[in-house]
Amino acid sequence: MTNSAKSLDCDAIVIGAGFAGLYMLRKLRDELGLTARVFERGDNVGGTWYWNRYPGARCDSESYIYCYSFDRELLQEWEWSGKYPEQPEILSYLNHVADRFDLRRSIDFNTSVVSAHYDDARDRWEVTTDKGEVIASRFLITGIGCLSAGQVPDIQGRELFKGESYHTGAWPHEGVDLQGKRVGVIGTGSSGVQSIPVIARDAAQLFVFQRTPQYTIPARHGTVDKAFLDNVKANYDEIWREAKTSAGGAPYTPIDRSALSVSEEERNAVYEDAWQQGGFKFVLASFNDIVIDPRANETASEFIRSKIREIVNDPVTAEKLVPKDHPFTSKRALIDTDYFDTYNRDNVTLVDIRESPIQEITETGIRTAAADYDLDVIVFATGFDAMTGPYFKIDIRGKDGVALKEKWSAGPRTYLGISTAGFPNLLMITGPGSPSVLSNMPVSIEQHVEWIADTISTMRAQGKQTIEADAQAEADWVEHVNAMAQPTLFMQADSWYLGANIPGKPRVFMPYVGGVGAYRIKCDEVAAAGYEGFVLA
Ligand code: NA7
């Protein structure tokens, strides 16, 4: 321990300066008057939106709800230009927020937290950065994101490739010139589906290496109507009320109608209308049982399959693009712009790597069981070690030196996704076991930040130094999270929700499916009952 760690250096350390870290800092520093420091590995704010700069990167939530709700003036003054916010615009927004609330002076940029060890004797966290600084803090709060640990598959020969290669989640800031190049994209999740149509416009040739075909709905992206935005601004209070009490964090009125209660003709008319409108309303505002009832789901799955066959000209390619091994929404639902149309371009080839697996990466490209593909650029749109990955990148140790990685070796264990037993005053923003990635993230982030700030404020008023999940409450919550997920369609696909994309990762459904509205009530009830399930000391 260095001298600097002998006394308490600050009240709270926040890791990450994305949506979560920025608001947490605002709360701790400006509202609670605490000394708080934020460590951010990037050279600027933005988190996910700082790193994911791949072509076509954009959010799937509509702009008017993909923002903070905590400041009325901010809501009124910010003007979104499109129906969905594109990566550069979200990054501008977060920079604006950082400037508006003078947050940068409390943020150490270009600084990664490498370890955080709890000192039982002194009840504080000792946090070490990659700059060698050791800081002692009462609270350790993680705003490290759910999808921030990029995953590049360990394909044989990867290091031999003589061309350029990039992961979508670590895209160069200066962009990549793909004009006239032969490009291979591995992966067809959100990042692949968003980037493939844009890359296809620049590249001389594009080869898409697909492992699992995807259901994706047209986004119908475009400029946002001024009258619509004016109306939103006039009604924001009601919009946020609906979003915060909904299941997914969006103010879409649920439709009280089963897909099985109408004739096939009527059902397809509803789907067609929703397809034309685009976006997640296809799921949320068509029928109430698509994500619950396998038979209802099959009608939506089949509608999308018919659309793929209709859009893609070559029947062999179309059939390869049609998902048959998992139900719609069992993997993260996707929305796109021109994704399936892209396969009608002469310069685009779909390579089915289930049929002919990738064997190796060579000096000149990718070799599958069937052919060699010569490439100038390989794009890894291969996703993330979701939810637990960002935690395991940091050597976090709680009481008695127990490593978080050890404690979570069979899957994450949390109470409410906020706290984990044995790690006092470690508070997680949208941690595993909370709705997080199943929701519109800013809504979940704000709820956690506000709950954490209220908790710290209450602790201060009551003279409490530490808060920690009770082991039994945690066990009950883990069981509840699992029990809620078991009957859902989510269990029927190999998804990153289940850790299935990472070899050797335990197959555990990590987010909480109960919905943000019900979850908020639970968190509020816990607080109102004197922090039931927590130990305050
Ligand atoms: P995703 O959704 O995890 O997608 C990753 C894609 O990469 C997916 O198609 C994977 O196929 C594929 N993949 C992963 N590993 C391999 C290997 N080893 N070989 C071939 N293909 C592979 O990540 P995204 O970045 O697109 O999106 C992440 C989230 O960000 C998204 O859901 C939104 O919440 C925002 P698979 O389906 O596993 O067969």
What is the fold's blueprint, element by element?
Layout: E1 10-15, H1 19-31, E2 36-39, H2 48-51, H3 72-77, H4 87-100, E3 107-108, E4 113-119, E5 124-129, E6 134-142, E7 164-167, E8 182-186, H5 190-202, E9 205-210, E10 216-218, H6 226-234, H7 236-245, H8 264-277, H9 281-284, H10 294-311, H11 315-321, E11 334-336, E12 348-352, E13 358-361, E14 365-368, E15 372-374, E16 377-380, H12 389-392, E17 395-397, H13 404-407, E18 426-428, H14 441-462, E19 467-469, H15 471-485, H16 516-528, E20 534-536
Parallel strand pairs: 1-2, 1-6, 2-3, 4-17, 6-18, 7-16, 8-9, 8-16, 9-12, 10-11
Antiparallel strand pairs: 4-5, 5-6, 13-14, 14-15, 19-20
Distance between the termini: 25 Å
The helical percent reads 25-40%
Overall spatial form: globular
Individual helix count? 16
Instruction: Report the count of strand segments.
Output: 20
Q: Can you summarize the main beta sheet?
A: 8 strands, mixed
Mean pLDDT, nearest integer? 96
Bound molecules: ligand NA7
Indicate the radius of gyration in whole angstroms: 23 Å
Structural class: alpha/beta
The residue ranges in which pLDDT falls below 50 over 5 or more consecutive positions are 1-5
User: Which band does the percent of strand residues land in?
Assistant: 15-25%
